[in-house]
């Protein structure tokens, strides 16, 4: 409830009283002035209602905006956490691949003869499978 609400209601009531007093006394000028004040009071009261409605809508809108900001911050933080986790996992898998690759290279270097025979056998098998059939 705001100032226009109260003043409009009071003006409307005073206008009704003045209209009734004018009717009882037989004074048309007082009746007219009372009717004018009734209408003006009703308009002011309606204006107060509109102000309250706009204030409530604005408050609701501000609440929605703040809720949206809060959710965005939550989603943004979660996205950063997921990105950090993905980077950590990528580094872990890269480190494992490098380790396994070095281990495999070391084993191949230790067993040169076996590695050479294995590579030759694989090359022969691929060549034999890739030859055109008759």
TrEMBL record:
Top-level taxon of origin: Bacteria
Protein name: Uncharacterized conserved protein YjbJ, UPF0337 family
């Amino acid at each position: 409830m705001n100032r226009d609400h109260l003043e409009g209601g009071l003006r409307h009531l005073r206008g009704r009283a003045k209209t009734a007093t004018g009717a009882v006394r037989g004074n048309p000028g007082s009746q007219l002035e009372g009717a004018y004040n009734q209408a003006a009071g009703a308009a002011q009261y309606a204006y107060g209602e509109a102000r309250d409605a706009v204030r409530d809508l604005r408050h609701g809108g501000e609440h929605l905006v703040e809720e949206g900001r809060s959710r965005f911050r939550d989603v943004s933080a979660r996205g950063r956490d997921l990105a950090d986790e993905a980077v950590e996992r990528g580094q872990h898998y890269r480190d494992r691949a490098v380790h396994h690759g070095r281990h495999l290279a070391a084993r191949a270097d230790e067993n040169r003869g076996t590695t050479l025979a294995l590579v030759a056998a694989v090359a022969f098998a691929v060549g034999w499978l890739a030859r055109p059939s008759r």
